[in-house]
Amino acid sequence: MVTETFTASARGALTGPPLRALAALVTASLLAGCGTAYVWQATSGEYHVLHAREPIAKVIADPATKPAVRERLEVVESARKFASADLGLPDNKSYTSYADIGRPYVVWNVVAAPEFSLTPHHWCFPVAGCVAYRGYFSEEQARAFAAHRAVAGDDVAIDGVPAYSTLGKFADPVLSSMLRYGDDELVAMIFHELAHQLIYVKDDSAFNEAFATTVEDAGLERWLKAQGKPERMAQFLKEQERAQRLIELLAAGRAELIRLYGSGVPPAVMRERKAAILHQLGVRIAAFERTEGVSYPLYDEWVSKGLNNARLASVATYYDCVPGLMKILAQEDNDLPRFYAAVRELAGRTRAARHAQLCPADAATEQDDAGD
């Protein structure tokens, strides 16, 4: 499956950029796996999600449906039609059904990176290719795997995921975990996941997530304009600009670590300097939030638990290539069909060529995706 850790308007919403990454890791784990137990938990988890589906129209018409759920699903219906009619995203059965999964997240993702590297480990699957994370339908199993990687010396990160895409292999439902977020975040998640169904390149998580994120942002901007909500549009643009500055702050911290890891100093010295850099990055994040008068709960949690390579690698996966794709969208006069055609052309190139054009900093520091 493909799950995420940082979703659509999530980059600009007060819930924080990391929602986007919270929905793209699951598809990989559904379609094959590393070990029988892992395959079984993924297959069983997906079965239960699909078994819980009901047509959204039926849920809305049911007198027993809570008014709050009915209202959110009406937003979903409208956004789903908009996604295909106005954004050119796949017109299929995905996100036309609803599943109440009875828990806050549908899956928990584990990202792991070596102690002195910002290149996350990758795991490979026949359909989804190699991805920079592993998704578990059980939080307990996710934490057990993370503990295993930590014992091996890795930095690890675990985050709950509200949504995922099976890349069109199944008709993905809207999940009750998605309704925990605001209307704009909900709409953005749907745009993001459908973008994965439109264009997806095996073995290139950074490209796939950046494309879905770009479509998400462009789609949400068009959606808000169509809704005639100028105040929400203004807020969206403000939050988008603010979130971009925070992402750049995190990128600067990663750059410091990259220089350190390439310095060749003894491990003990490197470990001490790494801790100092991460501490200062946490201080800068807190100062940014105070200055802007905002709070990003997920980043706050990361800082409180301790920033590490895995958490910073997650941000890089979702955002490093976004500016390059936004530039292409602007070059195509914000015409989405032309943009999609340009992205498909990029998808046909080698990974190295794509990254050299879209995200040179990433291309210079990240190795090719490889299975572990």
Radius of gyration: 20 Å
Total strands: the figure is 11
Give the overall form.
Answer: globular
Beta fraction: 5-15%
Largest sheet: 3 strands, antiparallel
Q: Describe the strand arrangement of the main beta sheet, using strand numbers.
A: 2-1-10
Low-confidence stretches: 5-33, 366-371
* Fraction in helix: 55-70%
Class based on secondary structure composition and strand pairing = mainly alpha
Distance between the termini: 17 Å
Order of helices and strands: EEHHEHHEEEEEHEEEHHHHHHHHHH
Mean pLDDT, to the nearest integer, reads: 87
Query: How many DSSP helices?
Result: 15
Could you characterize the architecture of this molecule?
The structure is a single chain. The protein is mostly helical and 372 residues long. Helices cover 57% and strands 10% of the residues. The chain is built from 15 helices and eleven strands. The protein has helices spanning 26-31, 36-51, 56-61, 67-85, 139-151, 183-198, 205-227, 230-261, 267-292, 297-305, 309-319, 322-331, 336-347, 351-358, 360-365, and strands at 2-4, 23-24, 54-55, 97-99, 107-113, 123-125, 129-131, 134-136, 155-161, 164-165, 174-175.
